Every structure is written in structure tokens, then in C-alpha cells.
Amino acid sequence: MKLYQRNFLLILFIAFGSIFGWLIFISNSSPTKNLSIIASSIHPIARKLIEDKTETLSNDLIVASPVKQPIVIDSKNVDPLAESRSVSKPKRIRSITCKINGEYKINCLKLMSGKETSVYIPFSFIHKYFEIGGKIVNQKSQDEYFEWNHSYSKIFYPDQPYDPADVFLWFGNYNVEFRDRVKCISAIDNVPLSTQWYPAGHLYPTQICQYGLSHFNKNLTSAPSERIQLINDGIVSDFHVDHNFIVDFKKNYLIVKDSRIDLKNNHTNYLIGQLDMKLIGNASITFVMFNIQTQQISYVLYSTIDDVIVIDTEDNQITYGLGSKAFKRGWFHFTRDLLVDLYKGYFISDRKRNNYYVSYIQIDGTVYIKNLALKTSAHEEFAMAAGDWLMRNQNAQGGWRIQVDRKLSKGLLVIKKGWHSAMAQGHAISLLTRLYRATNNTKYLETAKKALNIFEIESYKNGVKAILFDKYIWYEEYPTVPSIFVLNGFIYSLFGLYDLSKACNDQICQKSSQFYDEGIRSLESALSLYDSGSGSFYDLRHLSLGIAPNLARWDYHSTHINQLLYLYTITRNDLFKTVADRWIAYMKGHRSSHN
Ligand SMILES: *[C@@H]1O[C@H](CO)[C@@H](O)[C@H](O)[C@H]1NC(C)=O
Ligand SMILES: *[C@@H]1O[C@H](CO)[C@@H](O)[C@H](O)[C@H]1NC(C)=O
Ligand SMILES: *[C@@H]1O[C@H](CO)[C@@H](O)[C@H](O)[C@H]1NC(C)=O
Ligand SMILES: *[C@@H]1O[C@H](CO)[C@@H](O)[C@H](O)[C@H]1NC(C)=O
Ligand SMILES: *[C@@H]1O[C@H](CO)[C@@H](O)[C@H](O)[C@H]1NC(C)=O
Description:
Blueprint: H1 2-7, E1 11-15, E2 24-27, H2 35-40, H3 44-52, E3 71-74, H4 80-87, E4 91-100, E5 104-113, E6 116-122, H5 123-130, E7 133-137, E8 145-149, E9 182-185, E10 192-194, H6 205-221, E11 227-232, E12 235-236, E13 239-240, E14 245-246, E15 254-263, E16 272-291, E17 297-303, E18 309-312, E19 317-321, E20 332-337, H7 338-343, E21 356-375, H8 379-393, E22 406-408, E23 413-415, H9 422-439, H10 442-451, E24 465-468, E25 472-475, H11 487-501, H12 507-526, H13 541-544, H14 554-571, H15 574-586
Parallel strand pairs: 2-3, 17-19
Antiparallel strand pairs: 1-6, 4-5, 5-6, 7-8, 9-10, 11-12, 11-21, 13-15, 14-15, 15-21, 16-17, 16-20, 16-21, 18-19, 22-23, 24-25
Helix pairs in contact: 6-8, 6-9, 8-9, 9-10, 9-11, 11-12, 11-14, 14-15
Bound molecules: 2-acetamido-2-deoxy-beta-D-glucopyranose (5 copies).
Family: Belongs to the D-glucuronyl C5-epimerase family.
Pfam families: C5-epim_C (PF06662), Glce_b_sandwich (PF21174)
EC number: 5.1.3.17
């Protein structure tokens, strides 16, 4: 029996001999635990069945029998079958082949107990077949239990009404720079380089905005950054100075040539390197990082090369290009998250900031330095870096072009590089209006206002505006011809339009308000088209192309829900709340009822 158990991740208990099955509850509660407490932690359909005790059942995932009480297996007992034996009658068990819809054959277990015969199906099969997640939690401990999750995704409930002057949605939960599809943060542009759709990397405006917005939120919500000042206006502190330092007290900077700055103390968690510098010819600055767990030394180097990133795995060294003309820039401000920069070399996997410190800083060539500091975070700087990139790179039409081809629907749809995205435009506005409010710098607002222009240009003319059913205006995340009406990108663009509508009172901001209202009306009319009955559709390509629908995977489904919950806080439109609630239920396996 032990052997069989080892062969199966978890076995699902289905009863025959009754049209209804049994539902087994594996939890850490004791067998005597009050039914209502157990019931509150289980699937609502199952709960209803247990409560009613008479049931009509149309659900295809969970079936329950007319049980008086769910079988609760005490996790303290190593042998769940022995435990159920003590609850009911003696059982016999043997292997049996399961034939699944004539498509698969798998090994199952057959359990016989008195008049009843039941079959256990390995969860590893259920997991793949129904795309349902499950894992054993607290393995081998007293609290061990099996956790079944229909969806792997999480809902972010708004904790306050959406406010254009405050945090942007739930984006503070994002760590954009650590995403796999971020190649690295370019030290030339100071924004992420995306490998999405183009492995060599491109500056993807949507991702750049998400990077900025996530740091904008974190600036407002996380603990203040702590700072260790190493060089302050030419005054040196907290490190050992060697003879290659030229300390000229008449100047407010330090001239450092081919030397190393040894820190007096090991400051774990201070992994933001920040300074003002001026390079005299080719020069480089290296932050030498030490991991206290693995004792590994790694080198993060910034030098006057044009490559964005060069990885030398053998020597644990990663080099970021500052551009070959960096020495022509004169003084420039430099802020880097050294851990992110190190991580993108792929020779570390540990992201715990407390496991690292900067061991020393090496200068090769000649560099003028002032205000050298190590900090624990730099959210403000990173949010501004994204905003500044947007200001520097906006085109005459007010857009940020995506410079890679985008193929959708297995190549049925292709958008040639140089396209605009309503999502990028909307995100950019959301970031820029917030930076404007935070700094009073009107350049941010001007850039945001210019971005509105793209919303007026049709998607087939390299803009983003599409029309659904010849009637409803839709802003396209991917401006394909024909239009496919991606839902999440459209809703993100509406948040941008809303933000601009509240940022000023002039004609442009009023126009933004009008675009937002039109968009909300489209959403009200079309939202139900995205409901699949057990999830949501990512877009309407089945409508435009007559092909199979494109179901939203759980993280996009939950994005839809999050967006609707936040939109509801602005509009108080019950439709958004009702749909969000129904879609949340889909994430727990509920389906809309059938005829
Ligand atoms: C999975 O289910 C458990 C308990 O039912 C819940 O606490 C957890 O948040 C769920 N995880 C996800 C990703 O939904
Ligand atoms: C957020 O930015 C402000 C400046 O706008 C700064 O004073 C503050 O320290 C920052 N907070 C965090 C947590 O980064
Ligand atoms: C800092 O760590 C190094 C090992 O990398 C060790 O040799 C040195 O003694 C430490 N210094 C302090 C001040 O703890
Ligand atoms: C910097 O180095 C490159 C190659 O190593 C060289 O071609 C270039 O002339 C150098 N520039 C200066 C200003 O020394
Ligand atoms: C921006 O201007 C407003 C109104 O003049 C003022 O209250 C606020 O302090 C200013 N904020 C900044 C960051 O300068």
C-alpha cells in the first residue's frame, strides 16, 4: 500500500455505486472538527452539497455524495487509508487502468469498502488534464496538507478608490527588472531592455512605463531609502583611501585614477550605487560584490563601450556599456541597482539583498567623482528615469513606436515595426501625469498631453483607434488589421485617459475626458463578449478572424478582474463589479450554468 501511495502525488477519490461521488478533504483539522468550520474552507459547491445533503448536481469538476459528514483525514496519521478505514469499513485496494475519454490510459487505484467501490486518480494527471494546480504544503510536518488551486493567479483588491494623484493600480507588486523578458537595465538609456518578440533586446515603451510605474508606487509605499555617503563634495568618509586619490580641497570633487576604494564596513543590503561622475577618456568603474552565503565574489563593471551588456561567466563579471562617447557627456548622474545588474549576468540566483554587500569599488582610468553613496533603494530615481526616457523619445506625433515586428495568431496577423500601442500611450500618460504632480515640472504634463494625439489616429494609419461593430471606439494594444480588440490593453489605456482628464482643465485634458467616457461606454457594451463561461477571452480574434477564441490565461484573467475592480471604484458601474465577481468565481472552478 505504501508503494502505491508513493506512486501518486495525490489521489482523487471518486465514488461509484452512487451517481454521486465522495469528496475527500485533506486538511490539518482533526476528524472531530466542527462541520461548519471545515465547510467554510472548502469549495462553495461542495459546501452547498454538504449543507443541503440533498443535491442536484451539474458540476463537472467536483462531485459529492450524500454524505452526512465529509471525510476528514487526520494529517497526524501517516496512512490516510487506514484512517478512513477507522471512519468506515475495512477497505481493499489494488491497481486499475483508467481509460480517459478514449484518449489516455493511466494507472489508477481501486478501493473497495463494503458495498462501495471507488477509484483514485493521480493528481499529476488531474493537474495536467484540467490545468489545475495543487501542492503538498508543509511537507512532513504536523500541518502537512494538500492545497488544490484552480487558478495560480492572485487578485489585487483595491484598498482605496483609484486616485490619479496616488499609486497606480497594483503595480507596486511588480518587480519588472527581475522579469525574465527583461534582458537588463541599459546603462545608456537607464531603462529596461526587453527581449519580448526580439531576443537581442529592444526598448519596449510599455515595459519601460511599467518599470517606472512600479517604482513610482514603491516610492510612495515602501520604507525610506537608507544611505551611506562615501564621498561628499570631495570629502571622503567611511573607506580607506589609497595613494592614488588626489584630494584637492579647492575642488568639490575627487580625482580618482586607477585605484580602489575599500569600504571600512560590510554593509549588506546597501546595493544601490550612486554618484556623479565625469570620465576622462576611457575609464570604468567596478563594484565588487560579495555574497555572504556562497562567499562568491562578482564584478559589476560600467565602462565606455557601446554594447549594452557583456557577460563573462567564467570570471563572474558583467559589463554594462555607458556608450563609447560617455566621456563627452561631462558630469553625469549615475544610479544603479547593483543586485539587478548582477542578476542579469545569470551567474547568481540569490535575490536576497541582505546576502550581499559591496566589497570595494575599483576605478580604472581617470574618473572625477562626487557624491558617491550606497543606498538601500532608489525608487524615485528609477521612476524618473522612465519618465525622462519618455520625454526624450517621444516622436512628433506624440507616440513611442515599438521597433519590432509583432506577429499574432500564428502569423495570421503581423504588425510591422514602428507601431504604436494604446497601452504604451496610456501607461506613459499615467506615469507622466504622476511625475508632473510629484515634481510640478510641466514638461511631464506637456509630454502626457502630446501623447493623447495617437488616440485620434486610426489603427490602420499607425494609430490605435479601432471601431467595434461600426459603433464602439476601441483603443488597440496591438493595432492589427483587422482589429482584435485586446481587452487588458484597452482598459489600461482608459486609466491613462482618466489620469490626463484629471491632470488639467484645458481643452486637451477635456478631450481626454471625452475619450475616456467613450471608452467606458464601449466597455460597458462589449464586456460580456469576453466572458467564456469559465474564464475570459484575451481578445476578440474569434470574432474578427473567425478562428478559435484566444482564452486569457489565469494571469491575464486576473488582470481583467483587477482592472474591473479598480474601474468600479471610479465609475460605480455595477456591471463591472458583477462581471468581476463572476470572473473571480471562475478562478475557483465555478462555471456559468448550462441549459
Ligand atoms: C490557493 O489556495 C489557498 C487556500 O485555498 C489560498 O490561500 C491561496 O492563496 C491560493 N493560491 C492562489 C495562487 O490562488
Ligand atoms: C520617494 O521620493 C521622495 C521625493 O519625491 C523622496 O523624498 C522619498 O525618500 C522617496 N521614498 C522612497 C521610499 O523611495
Ligand atoms: C568584511 O568581509 C570580509 C570578507 O569578505 C572580511 O574579511 C572582513 O573582515 C569583513 N569586515 C568587517 C568590518 O566585518
Ligand atoms: C577608448 O577605447 C577604444 C577601444 O578600446 C578606442 O578605440 C578609443 O579610441 C578610446 N578612446 C579614448 C578617448 O581614449
Ligand atoms: C507643487 O505646487 C503645489 C502648488 O503650487 C505645491 O503645493 C507643491 O508643494 C509643489 N510640489 C513640489 C514637489 O514642488
